[in-house]
Automatic annotation (TrEMBL):
PANTHER family: MULTIDRUG RESISTANCE PROTEIN MDTH (PTHR23517:SF2), RESISTANCE PROTEIN MDTM, PUTATIVE-RELATED-RELATED (PTHR23517). This is MFS transporter. One of its GO terms (molecular function) is transmembrane transporter activity. InterPro entries: MFS, MFS_dom, MFS_trans_sf, MFS_Transporters.
Length: 397
């Protein structure tokens, strides 16, 4: 074995070795599921082009999906703690598969609306269960690396799924629904066969969401997460609108610049996750959010594709810095028997941000690029400052 080969082997072991086999089954299932995530990025196109809905009607239907997603994380948190992590994850994936096919073959507006609401309810049920499984399976010292690898797998799969989905959509949207459904079933089967149930015995004194809401540190972290999520959610709400309608970029130019986000995460994140995981979580998280906020604030000065790519590179660096840290913090704050509920409250912050982001960003963009992106950058800096204030309490846990 040459020295170069030995060094490469040592590097791979340092990044991927030492985690339990069930974690890798969970990671593999997540990757497969993200490879098949083709429907949601093209839902607006499907509703308007394939089902003939107006832009306004499509927006209302997407709002119904958002309403379902708001309930999803709280419901999933309860189910994760009551019926178990494995059952919740596998059941959520099977329900997602069935709902994907129902939506794909829905032709009337009532059936589309009903399918979209149920899809919002079940699509991300797996998240609290997945987060709780990692916390149960992996030692506290290895959790930052484990959550970081999960984040990396999600982005790797999503990047490939987006590319393939764009091509398959040209052959017919029904292909997207079938592939999404099949990969959901594969995820469910893999978890059911290869991941043990890790839910600790329920305690009568465990309580419900009231216990979580009385945890001031967790509530504070949820508010910090909400502010951070409001910043990041602009990538799916106002950023495409601002770049195409105001700056005048084509969809191809916008997609090219945004592809840099996935490339940087896939290439850079495995290289730095181990070192970042050894740092103080609250300070690392605050640094990542601050860099992300700076990148979004810089968007106010974007005039071309190169400028957009530069801002994407900056906020992606922030995203990489804090990747996996949030899951580590939630796992540290949550008692084992309430990890599902704690993860559910964390996920609720992201669902709420997805609903609030266009409501905040739309009126600001109507005023101008500066008001929108400087405000979004300010929200991110408030999130970073809040994280620093929570740091001592999190370290005491």
């Amino acid at each position: 074995m040459t020295s170069t080969t030995a060094e490469r082997s040592s590097f791979l072991r340092s990044k991927f070795a030492g985690l339990p086999r069930p974690f890798w089954a969970l990671w593999g299932g997540t990757l497969v599921n993200r490879l098949g995530t083709m429907v949601m990025p093209f839902t607006g196109v499907y509703l308007t082009q394939s089902r003939g809905l107006s832009v306004t009607a499509a927006g209302l239907v997407m709002g119904v999906f958002g309403a379902g997603s708001l309930l999803s994380q709280l419901l999933a948190g309860v189910l994760t703690d009551r019926i178990g992590r494995r059952a919740t994850l596998a059941g959520g994936m099977l329900a997602t598969a069935a709902t994907m096919l129902a939506l794909g073959y829905s032709t009337s507006l009532p059936s589309i609306v009903a399918s979209m609401f149920v899809l919002g309810l079940v699509l991300d049920i797996y998240r609290p269960a997945s987060n709780a499984l990692v916390a149960d399976l992996v030692s506290p010292e290895e959790r930052p690396r484990a959550y970081g690898l999960l984040f990396w797998g999600i982005n790797l799969g999503y990047a490939v799924g987006m590319t393939a989905g764009g091509r398959l959509a040209g052959l017919g949207f029904v292909w997207l629904f079938w592939i999404d459904a099949l990969t959901s079933v594969v995820f469910a089967v893999l978890v059911w066969r290869a991941v043990p149930e890790t839910r600790p015995p329920a305690r009568e004194s465990a309580g419900g969401f009231g216990v979580v809401l009385r945890d001031r540190v967790m509530v504070g972290f949820t508010l910090v997460t909400l502010a951070q999520a409001l910043v990041y959610s602009q990538t799916m709400s106002m950023l495409p609108v601002a770049m195409t309608n105001v700056v005048g970029l084509s969809t191809g130019q916008f997609g090219l610049a945004m592809a840099l986000n996935g490339v940087l995460i896939v290439v850079v994140q495995p290289l730095v996750s181990g070192r970042l995981g050894r740092l103080d979580p609250s300070r690392t998280f605050a640094l990542g959010v601050a860099v992300m906020a700076l990148g979004f604030a810089m968007t106010a000065f974007v005039h071309d594709t190169f400028g957009l790519a530069a801002t994407v590179a900056v906020w992606t660096v922030g995203e990489v810095i804090q990747a996996g840290i949030a899951g580590t913090i939630v796992a540290a704050l949550a008692p084992p028997e309430l990890r599902g509920r704690y993860s559910g409250l964390f996920g609720f912050a992201w669902s709420l941000a997805a609903v609030l982001a266009p409501l905040l960003g739309g009126p600001l963009l109507a005023i101008g690029m500066g008001p929108l992106w400087f405000t979004i950058g300010g929200v991110g800096m408030v999130s970073a400052a809040g994280m620093l204030l929570l740091g001592p309490a999190i370290r005491r846990r």
